[in-house]
Amino acid sequence: MKKSILKILATTLFAIQLFTVNATASDEKKIIKSHTIDVSQIVMTIQYGDGFFTLTRRLFKALDKNPENVTWEDVFLLKTIYEEQKGNDKLKVGDKFIIVKNEFI
């Protein structure tokens, strides 16, 4: 009788231990999360043959917007940003300037 009680007790303790291990393993899986990184600025480089309209279309592509929806206000905004950073409106091949993403969204 003592042996059967000990067997039942040992089996119960083993089952409880087994279930708690499975519960903690499932909790660990829930801890893993994915993070997205939001780009807040874009560095634009002037290429040969670029104009402000072409730069604006390329910027729209980088922002996953339709480049066919470029308006003259967008082009003027890009030109203003370039003038503020470079001091003039002459595009030079290889020049880089920074666009803050929030200004075009």
Automatic annotation (TrEMBL):
Signal peptide per UniProt: 1-25
Keywords tagged on the record: Signal
Annotated protein name in UniProt: LysM domain-containing protein
Species of origin: Flammeovirga pacifica
Classification of source organism: Bacteria, Pseudomonadati, Bacteroidota, Cytophagia, Cytophagales
